[in-house]
Amino acid sequence: MNPYPAIETERLILRATAIEDAELIYALQNTEGWIKYIGDRGVRSVKDAERYIAERMMPQYMRLGFSNNTIFLKSDGSRIGVAGLYAREGLDHVDLGFALLPVFMRKGYIREAGEALLHAATHVYQLKQVDAITTEENVASQQVLRGLGFSFVKRTRLPDDPEELLLFTRLLEKEHA
Fold first, then answer.
1. Which among 3, 60, 125, 149 could disulfide-bond with 67, CB atoms 3.0 to 4.6 Å apart, if both were Cys?
2. CATH number of the domain at 7-171, out of 3.40.50.720, 3.40.630.30, 3.30.70.1060, 3.30.1330.60?
3. Is 81 within 8 Å of 17 (Cβ atoms)?
4. Under a CB-based contact definition with an 8 Å cutoff, are residues 138 and 104 in contact?
5. Pseudo-torsion of CA 161, 70, 6, 92, nearest 10°?
6. What is the pTM of this model?
């Protein structure tokens, strides 16, 4: 039973990633795009993915009430990727991150999930700003971030990571009714 409420959009359900999502996490973290743009996390089996979820994703949920979400299609319940709000060491603000299995890319799912997470960041978590990081080569993610209203700020490095990243940010404002 997942204690965190799901977020629903027109086509998607975002639910806190749980142990039962290990097959997706294993598949996702071993795609060419994940390894190239996010990095090899050493997840070599479904058992490794279960451990990764328990040790790297669930603790932030327990601490802050938000973290990684599994993205499901409403139409058939397929698990298609992940998106979330992350408290990353080395960043001053919560970070928006996302990844999809390749077959589900370029269908607007990440933009839809991102808009829902930014709404929750503003209205549920009362955040004033959200950051996002990406590699310079990941042009598709940069386009998504710009489409979500993020602006490039600077180049940066995270602690214990030699790769230079691009830092984007978006100030959040509550919509007035």
1. 60
2. 3.40.630.30
3. no
4. no
5. 10
6. 0.92
